[in-house]
Amino acid sequence: MNLDDRHRRLAALHREGTFLLGNAWDAGTARVLETAGFPAIGTTSSGFAFSLARRDYEGALERDEVAAHVARLVAAIDVPLSVDAEDGYGDRPDDVAETVRILADAGASGASIEDHPRSPASVLYPIGEAVERVRAACEAAAALRRPFTVVARAECFLVGTRDPLRESIERLNRYREAGAHCLYAPGPRDLGVIETLLREAPGPHNVLARAGMSVAGLARLGVRRISIGGSLARTAFGAVVRAAREMIERGTFEFQNEGAPPPELEDRFRSR
Q1: Residue 165: exposed, middle, or buried by beta-carbon count in 10 A (0-12, 13-18, 19+)?
Q2: pTM over 0.85, yes/no
Q3: Is the dihedral of CA 271, 146, 230, 226 positive or negative?
Q4: CA distance linking residue 39 with residue 81, whole number of Å
Q5: What is the mean pLDDT of residues 138-153?
């Protein structure tokens, strides 16, 4: 699939029903997820930060290194790539707009923009500023004259605002009015809360999948896009931690029985 087709495909997926977005932290995992059947791939800021021995949600990634990361993933796959662009790598709306242009130049088909500044503080941008940042992203996307899907994130559940459901609804409605193509309030585990979000902030929604949820159950609620965030990266790092403990504490190597067979991986990584 060429880049133009990928961009159109990601936009179409947000109109067609429910789809899974597989979040990859490097080119190899992007290829594995693509060959497993995911119709689109997303980046994960946490997974990418962990791969660089950095912490997440603290502004550890720089825009230029994220753009280079995006270019590597785009080159490794033939399906659309949506980017976890954190807060857009700057406080000003112009910063967010420039990030959209840079990621689009790297081959991305879309990006999500958070309303949480890249700092450890549990604060959100004031709603007026947050709306202007989303509007700037959407205007920059429209100026590309090709599909670029902007996902607007309300981080209320993750930072622990006083009434995260009500505030998420207010923010997501304002973001939709500012032009966002998809809405996203990561954090809720209760399906009733998710259902309320979808009902009171109409529009295509991304939901962060949690253990205990299912694709079928989320589809019945009307969720359009299901992502997995950094959970695969955490699973992989967890496997390394367990293997390291086994070797250091027990002196055995049974973890090797859980690895993917080399021929299977070699087949997935064939040159195209």
Answers
A1: middle
A2: yes
A3: negative
A4: 10
A5: 97
